[in-house]
Amino acid sequence: MQKNNLYLIIISLFTILLFVLQEKVQASILASCNLFITKIFPSLFPMFILTDLLIYLQLPELLAKIFGKLFKKIFHTSPYGSFMFFTSLFSGTPANAYILKNLVKENKLTIDEANYIFSFSFFTNPLFYLTMLNLIFKDKIIILKLFLIPYISNLIVGFILRPKTINNNQLIKINNSKTFIETLLESIKKSMNTMLIILGTITLFFILNAIINPLNNPLISGFLEISQGLKSLELANLSINVKQLYTLLFVCFGGLSIILQIKSILTDTNISLKTFIKARLIQTLIAIILLII
């Protein structure tokens, strides 16, 4: 009962602030929609469709045969771990949560291995991240360094958290009864539902940032929503070193918005976020150390 009363107070206060800060709220909604349409949707939606089609065409089996033995030796994963990791490099997060969910539902990854693989497959969409880096920084060396550190730190996290025993599961051959067109149409439907969830989550955090962060502090913005945090660094009156630090904090932790998006995508699975969040904290620490070095 007390918990419900707390929620009621928070929602009531939030409602009042929506009216008091009406102009800021409207501006934040428009900004979130603009960011979604111009940057996020073009980056994620094609990857969602492409991933479903590649899985249908059995690309996981091909990648597993090429990289499976190497990943098994270094990270103690089954062959499908390599597919999840390499696809995540290109799709970024939360698109890779969508990939992970599909692999689990196809019985190609166990829940335990899915939790582990996801812990070191957290990447910002490379096209989006590189675009933001070029807006914030002009030095190509800095851009290259900040682009590579999240990838290197992810690999280190994977090695640190790897299971003690090697997963000896073999590739599972699953016959798909659906046609290519059926798979495509189903993928479009699922992807659009997922994109709507992402849009709603981003808009919510843009509104929240407008209410609790009137001075647009980059650290608060990035903690809430990574894209808004990176965007705020472009015009922030901060030193280059501080901007580099904030960039890695945002990219390695991901922000509350990303975590909520991932939770919504994985809602009908048993995949836990505990290992994922633990890995984000470890990766952030490693990234800072690499930046200092």
Topology:
Blueprint: H1 2-20, H2 22-56, H3 59-75, H4 80-91, H5 95-105, H6 111-119, H7 126-136, H8 140-160, H9 180-212, H10 218-224, H11 226-233, H12 240-253, H13 255-265, H14 274-292
If you had to describe this structure to a student in words, what would you say it looks like?
- It is a single chain.
- Helix 3 packs across helix 4 and helix 8 runs parallel beside helix 12.
- The protein has 14 helices and no strands.
- The chain is mostly helical and 293 residues long.
- The protein has one domain.
- Percent helix range: over 70%
In total, the number of domains comes to 1
Radius of gyration: 20 Å
Structural class: mainly alpha
| Number of helical stretches of at least 4 residues | 14
* Beta strand %: under 5%
Poorly predicted residue ranges: none
The largest pleated sheet is described as: none
In round numbers, the mean pLDDT is 84
Q: Tell me the overall shape.
A: globular
Cα separation of the termini? 51 Å
**How many DSSP-defined strands?**
0
Order of helices and strands: HHHHHHHHHHHHHH
